[in-house]
Task: structure prediction
Amino acid sequence: MNPFPYSDDNKHYHTYSYYLRHRFGGKVSRISLNAGLSCPNLDGTKGTGGCSYCSSSGSGEFGGKPGQPVSEQFAAVAGRMGEKWDTQKHIAYFQARTNTYAPVDRLRALYEEALDCPGVVGLSIATRPDCLPDDVCDLLGELAERTYLTVELGLQSVWEETGRRINRCHTWEDFLNGYEKLRKRGVLVGAHIINGLPGETPEMMLKTAEELAKLELHLVKIHLLHVIQGTRLAEQYRSGEFPLLSRGEYVDIVCSQLELFPPEFVLGRLTGDGAPEQLIGPAWSLKKLCVLNEIDKEFVRRDSWQGKCFIGR
Result:
């Protein structure tokens, strides 16, 4: 018998699909959109060149085409998704770059256009924790009263030395400030972290998970560090500045992180998708299903589950 309560299959962790299925009564797909916005780490406001791992698309490889109206992007991506899943319910996901980095009137128009698309039952907005001015937070609070809204904050690591190394240009304190501003307005908050960042040990990655476990988060996404062509990270990797995690190392770290999280945390992702034609490494990451299967097997081997080592807040 599966000892984990938030599961109706063999998963020992709280999957996003489980949460959405139980909240909305069936399969819900996420439709990735590109609002065509920039980032303060690109335009000189906070930095230039972006984070060292960030691709030219700003993590929008699988989304809509920037410059195209949101409704047209939605129709195109939903059409592709419909070939994989039979569902009429969707989360509109503003994924690429920093999706609160614009005047509030422009943001309102983008979000409202997405909500008007057929079958949309919620919004997911990815952004930086230092791009949450009060008027934007007020808008997000309004939306949270009307729809299922999750604002996903890119953290990557709690370690300031790591942030400097990857040119992140914000701090752990910035993350906590952004988290508090959203929580105060009733907005569900997600966090993104990356395993395998240059200079980090497994113990450092577990510390990031430990700190997140103290918060009232709705969702966490765990990414594997990908080395993508054309990034500063690629130059550093080729010069031998850091190694890549093996699949076994990654699986061990992820399972240990999930053991630290409370069972209620929804896991939006446990690995990542790198565009194959741009990926330098690790090559094993292309077999995403194999990675997830290994995580399942490791939990069974440990006789463990998400939250087994959670000590409370």
